[in-house]
Amino acid sequence: MKINLDKKQRFLLLFFMAAVLGFTSCQPDDSFDDNGLTNNNVDASFDIVPVEGKVNTYNLVAKTNVVLKSIWNTGNGDYVGKGVQEVSFPDAGTYTITQTAIGAGGGTGTASKDLVVATTDPLKGNLVQGGSFSTAADQAKWTVLNLSASGAAFWSYQNNSATLHSPGGWAQEGIYQAIDVVKDKEYTIDMKVSALSGSDETWFEVYAGKSFPQPGVEYKDNKVMGLSTWDGCAKGAFSGMLSAVGCVKNDKTGTVSNVVKFAETGKIYLLIRCGGNKFTKDGITVSKIEFRGK
Description:
This is PKD domain-containing protein. The chain is mainly β. It has 2 domains: about 45-115, Immunoglobulins (Immunoglobulin-like), CATH 2.60.40; about 135-294, Jelly Rolls. The protein is about 10% helix and about 40% strand. The protein is built from 3 helices and 18 strands. It has helices spanning about 5-25, 135-140, 240-245; strands at about 45-50, 55-60, 70-75, 80, 85-90, 95-100, 110-115, 145, 155-160, 160-165, 170-180, 185-195, 200-210, 225-230, 240, 260, 265-280, 285-294. The strands form 4 sheets. Strands 9, 10, 12, 15, 16 and 18 form a 6-stranded antiparallel sheet that branches. β3 and β4 (about 80) form a beta hairpin. The radius of gyration is 27 Å and the shape is globular. It starts with 6 loop residues before the first helix and ends with a strand. Residues about 1-5 and about 5-35 have low confidence and may be disordered.
């Protein structure tokens, strides 16, 4: 069907189209993104309440129940928690605690508080020596376990941390120290781990074994926890406590757990073994290593 338009009709049609285009071009880019449901002023305030019957243990209690998700940071990186989150600080010190609260529509709010812990928990003192790597004396508490014949993988100490560097090709290296433990007593192991970029075919494993580490021999006695790209972590950048970001199962429990206990009183070896085939160019960094009575 052919439609004939006179000059006046063509002019009105062009005017209408120009008006529509002008209206849409003047709309902000996000005019359809904000549907009025986003809360851009989320209350992230919280209280710190001591837990009765537990030493140096506290509940972080969000003050509002409209928060959809609470992200907490007690000084070791962000992690997703609950509106009432229990935390423990075995060592005396001042800790800055931050909550990032996520509300309706993805809106966020952030609040921080300082917590002063007056005394160290005598039953949960850190048995690791030099776990901060902050001085040459700290670093000397660790023995390097040479595992790659070429020496291509190596540890470096800087910024209160130790970093494993590897060119890939399955190069690996370890560090360890001896720790005295008590029969049937439960302990927890943890440490802060980070990498600025991801890896593939890579592992970062933590052991607490009775066997003495031997140069050139992969240590495999009592794997407790770790990172593994085969198990789904360390494929991208990460930062946080290994107990939170790790995905390697505990040999004894068959679950992701940082709890260990031993059948005999005596010496064990806390050992970290790290390497891979397609290793992050930035290295994997560890700091704040802890081995504590539970």
